[in-house]
Amino acid sequence: MVTVQDVRERWEKIQGDDERILFIVGGPGSGKSLLIRELSEQKGWKYLEAKQLIEEEFLLVPRDERPQLAEEVIRRALSRSDTEVVLIDGINVLFAPILNLNPLELLKTISKTYPIVVGWRGHLEGDQLYLEHNNDPKHAVVTVTKPERVMVID
What InterPro entries does the annotation carry (predicted)? Predict the structure, then answer.
């Protein structure tokens, strides 16, 4: 069982990294959202649902222009959070084909300015991090290059 203290300790270990992003990985009902909410209460970090990062105007932009605009839109949303660390849950929203994004690369880039803890619905197999969405346990896959940035809770 991963605790708030475990996350804090891991967080301290990655603070010297260029990209400050930590993934809390677990399946449905594993407690990752609860853990992230506890972090927001105990640590004073800001909890956001990923859908809060995308403004409605973003969807009015032609699909092929969205990747260029996404970083600016998300940075603007995070700048309003006024916190040391942003806790993002419901990340699967950013993988929606309509958005035309590369969410992981986008978050890694943004984490250089805004430290991020991400609730990741899915599982880890070796160095492959799978995102579960719409009952598909392997909806998206990314390769983990720094295992210290991933904490599996189930």
Answer: BREX_3_BrxF, P-loop_NTPase
